[in-house]
Amino acid sequence: MTDYEQRLLDVLVSTHPGWRYEQHDLPGLPRWWAIRYEPLRPDQRRAGARDALGRTTLRRLVSALARHDEILHNLRY
Length: 77
What we know:
This protein is α+β, with helices and mostly antiparallel strands. The protein has one domain (3-74). The protein has helices at residues 3-15, 42-46, 58-74, and strands at 19-23, 32-36, 52-55. The protein has a three-stranded antiparallel β-sheet with strand order 1-2-3, with helices on one face.
């Protein structure tokens, strides 16, 4: 993990504490994952929220989590 990735990961942990973050180096799969600690409600899932998000880079994961927060905010979560 690079210093840049570690700094991004530290920011994710502090701004999105309800998620566990994992790095996987498996061919054909996203490298970075965020997995929710608590399961979502059915209405949250219907609105497009997910229990796990995977992206090829941490930067893309940051963007995905921001969009995810918008979904939950729109439901007044």
